[in-house]
Amino acid sequence: MKKILIIGTVAYDEIETTTGSSGKILGGAATYIGLGASLLNSKSSIISIVGGDFEHKNLKLLKLKGINTDSIEIVPKGKTFYWKGKYHKDWNKRDTLNTQLNVLADFNPAVSEENKKAEIIVLGNLHPEIQNTVLDQVNVSEKCIILDTMNFWMDNALAELMKVIKRVDIIIINDEEALQLSKKDTLFAAANKILSFGPKQIVIKKGEHGAMLFDESRFFTVPAFPVKKVIDPTGAGDTFAGGFAGYLSHLDKINFEAMKLAVVHGTVMASFCVEGFGTSVMESLEKETTNNRLKEFKNFTRY
Amino acid sequence: MKKILIIGTVAYDEIETTTGSSGKILGGAATYIGLGASLLNSKSSIISIVGGDFEHKNLKLLKLKGINTDSIEIVPKGKTFYWKGKYHKDWNKRDTLNTQLNVLADFNPAVSEENKKAEIIVLGNLHPEIQNTVLDQVNVSEKCIILDTMNFWMDNALAELMKVIKRVDIIIINDEEALQLSKKDTLFAAANKILSFGPKQIVIKKGEHGAMLFDESRFFTVPAFPVKKVIDPTGAGDTFAGGFAGYLSHLDKINFEAMKLAVVHGTVMASFCVEGFGTSVMESLEKETTNNRLKEFKNFTRY
């Protein structure tokens, strides 16, 4: 089994929806990516930074899920990255009510010798400068590098982001971001353009409408798993990336056919994420439930 | 092979999009349904009404595609149903600029003895009162009856529409219409509610986001075929219904597994429709092109 190295935020979130609010809960891209991969029994390690306020029970949870937390730096006098957001009735729209970078402002990740051995690296949503710092420390050509990013960096650090994109194997972004990054007006044109920036594959996430996978000459698409009731979409995209990487970690050879199934697994893992606030559903998911939903998804989509 | 009987409009349309306009062209739900079925080499017969202005070349085209036009009544002194519409940049929005019912105002379809033998009946979008009149003339319990309708009738003839819905096997509607008809706020809840009105299956079309098929206990979904450039979405839903019925017409037994493939075929046939104004692309499609796209769709969606 390939080891997965995850770089990203471990954070506290506070989430409001039209039907409820979460209170202060565990969040962060790396957290969701790690949990997404753990649902598929993958071995991962997180590089991140938290403050002295970060609760032991949260670290314990990650460890319990098979996530190595040795490289989550704890700054005793600092505070953990905090984000508060509010979703509209249309889940695709959300307002950021409060962002406190806190310890993240000085995050300068060092990759340990052990972590340098990971064969799959997932760069979670984070300042592209930090993502580049991580890539500087590893042998990029020997790794499968997966990048998740978002429009915020396209608006605020495009040049740095383009440098990262050039260096990764697979980029995972959502539909609007793909259009923005490529300056194209269809997803096909966007995918082609973004592939010309460097990645060998691109995954475009379309939320409730599924996901698409492209390489230079091939295309694959799946619908989303039809969730009966969405409670909180926070972290769904990160969980997708975690499930995607988690599936690949079990394979000797990572090719387009494998990535099709990785997209399926990412889709199904993300469906659990949105069924509760934050990480709540994924924290206590039985292996059987995961397997059943994967089977169900096949039933729903195979013909 | 089962024969398909289609009841619906044969019309003239004039379509404006943000990039062009069609001029006066052949349209109508029955036309598109017939062409959708003809792409799969099905045998169909249309019951409709046109005016003395209906051009011979249009009738000839339908016949050339294996569609029996004997039951398209021609009213020499009347004018053919006419619709003019304009699409927004967002294809899901369109404004009706002009509607002239003309001969359609007095449409009172009689089902010939020959047409009564058809095993599949497609009720194209039309006043539900007329759809009921047709069902009154056939042995409903022996047929596979497919209903296509739209929000206009939900707003203006709901009681009559509910009577039709009660009598059909399969209802095909789009996502917004399913929510409106069911007064529910998710497509799953909507599908369940609508099934309780009578149909054994429901197909919910989601345009560029694909289609869903439900019966009482089962669910299936496919993405749309990714069309590179949409020129005109008029008739796509009707063409879907035609492809759906066309696929079923070749089978001895119509069950849920067959309907999954019918949804796939409807999806692919509809993708041709939107690639040109009106019926233009479907008029001259080679069998090979259709087969290739079906294969391509499998490549895009099977894993």
- Strand residue content of chain A: 15-25%
Question: Tally the helices of chain A: what do you get?
Answer: 12
Question: What number is the mean pLDDT of chain A?
Answer: 96
Number of strands of chain A: 14
> Structural class from helices and strands of chain A?
alpha/beta
* Global geometry of chain A: globular
Rounded radius of gyration of chain A (Å): 18 Å
What oligomeric state is this? homodimer
Low-confidence stretches of chain A: none
How many separate domains make up the residues of chain A?
1
Largest interface (CB within 8 Å) is between: A-B, 25 and 25 residues
Largest sheet of chain A: 10 strands, mixed
Q: Which CATH architecture of chain A would you pick?
A: 3-Layer(aba) Sandwich
Describe the fold and architecture.
The structure is a homodimer of 303-residue chains. The first copy, chain A, is of the alpha/beta class. Chain A has one domain (4-301): Ribokinase (UDP-N-acetylmuramoyl-L-alanine:D-glutamate ligase, 3-Layer(aba) Sandwich), CATH 3.40.1190.20. Chain A has twelve helices and 14 strands. In chain A, the strands form two sheets. In chain A, strands 1, 4, 5, 6, 9, 10, 11, 12, 13 and 14 form a ten-stranded mixed sheet that branches. A four-stranded mixed sheet of chain A has the order 3-2-7-8. In chain A, a hairpin with a 6-residue loop joins strand 7 and strand 8 (94-100). In chain A, helix 7 packs across helix 8. Chain A is globular and about 50 Å long. Chain A starts with a strand and ends with a helix. The model of chain A has no long low-confidence stretch (mean pLDDT 96).
